[in-house]
Automatic annotation (TrEMBL):
Record organism: Methanospirillum purgamenti
Record key words, sorted: ATP-binding, Cytoplasm, Ligase, Nucleotide-binding, Purine biosynthesis
Domain PurM-like C-terminal: 170-324
Location within or outside the cell: Cytoplasm
Pathway: Purine metabolism; IMP biosynthesis via de novo pathway; 5-amino-1-(5-phospho-D-ribosyl)imidazole from N(2)-formyl-N(1)-(5-phospho-D-ribosyl)glycinamide: step 2/2
Primary subcellular site in the record, as a coarse category: cytoplasm
Name recorded for this polypeptide: Phosphoribosylformylglycinamidine cyclo-ligase
Length: 330
């Protein structure tokens, strides 16, 4: 399969980026008076000034991973994904998530499905130490098919402790923290591979089924807040949709990956099954690395204290671009 397999599966990353720019170009109004906007649109989260603090907001959903849950009739973990995709976007700016609201749009309600979703949301809240304040459930028969789960998260931090990536300098090192698997991005392409070339019951060499692998919940990186308290951190990145391209949100640097984390077995299966290029894999999936911390070398041991599975994956250089094992990807 050629390089634009994700687009053929139904998601055009380049078109999405252009469409979002069109939307953002119209968002020109800013609140006047107290509690004004204190960030630019386009980072992982946006925030407003609140005295000595900033209040931050992030919004995200589970996406087409819900269709995998439907196929397996198992919705017990997608709530974790919903919270994880939000709180991880706050952590990258050293923002502490404190509250969450969910939004469910469905064609019809099911007691069992809602109970399972609630179970996952509660577990995600526990892992992230936040309160679920409420939410909205809308029955939209004719507008949606199935069920879509999304949410918004509120975070807080002292202004002087917010990390935006502005402190990154050439010579910093990148520490990668493994993902739990595919997380909640790239599922449109992954599902296409399974549905065209296998089945959710097919087993990988490890014995895990494809369905089980795709449904594994997103890792929540709550301990990075402790890392930021204990050592100097210059920037952080949550590797979501767009893969390594997410790093460009931190600034135009050379992100040189010379010791990348090994991708999980599900990625090997997708490559071998669909013939997807390395470049497209790394611009679609997290490829085994869900989170990156950019810092001076002396901070590595602090990261390893909280994440023993973390490792130095590369370094920052001045010339812009993203390189993997000596080859420029983007």
């Amino acid at each position: 399969m050629e390089q634009d397999a994700y687009r053929e599966a139904g998601v055009d990353i380049d078109l999405e980026a252009a469409a979002v720019k069109s939307l953002i170009s119209e968002l020109t109004y800013r609140r006047k008076g107290e509690f004004s906007m204190a960030s630019e649109i386009g980072h992982f989260a946006g925030f407003v000034s609140f005295g000595k603090y900033v209040l931050a907001m992030a919004v995200d959903g589970v996406g087409t991973k819900m269709l995998v849950a439907d196929a397996l009739q198992n919705w017990s973990t997608v709530g974790i994904d919903c919270i994880a995709m939000n709180v991880n976007d706050l952590y990258v700016m050293n923002l502490e998530p404190i509250a969450f609201v969910d939004y469910i749009a469905t064609s019809e309600l099911s007691h069992d499905q809602m109970k399972q979703i609630g179970k996952g949301l509660n577990e995600g809240a526990k892992l992230a130490n936040l309160s679920i304040l409420g939410g909205e459930t809308a029955t939209l028969k004719g507008l949606v098919t199935g069920l879509d789960l999304a949410g918004a998260c509120l975070g807080i931090q002292e202004k002087e402790k917010v990390i935006t990536g502005s402190a990154i300098v050439p010579g910093d090192i990148m520490v990668g923290i493994p993902s739990s698997g595919i997380h909640s991005n790239g599922l449109t392409l992954a599902r296409r591979m399974v549905e065209q070339h296998g089945s959710y019951d097919e087993r990988l060499q490890s014995g895990e089924t494809l369905g089980e692998s795709l449904l594994k919940p997103t890792r929540i990186y709550a301990d990075v807040l402790r890392i930021c308290e204990e050592t100097d951190v210059h920037g952080m990145c949550h590797i979501t949709g767009g893969g390594l391209l997410n790093l460009n949100r931190l600034g135009e640097f050379g992100y040189i990956f010379d010791s990348p984390l090994p991708p999980q077995e599900i990625y090997t299966w997708i490559v071998q099954t669909g013939g997807i290029s390395e470049q497209e894999m790394y611009r679609t999936f997290n490829m085994g690395m869900g989170y990156v911390i950019i810092m001076p070398q002396e901070g590595v041991n602090t990261v390893k204290k909280y994440y023993p599975d973390a490792q130095v994956v590369g370094k920052i250089e001045r010339s812009p671009g993203i390189s993997l094992n000596g080859k420029k990807l983007f």
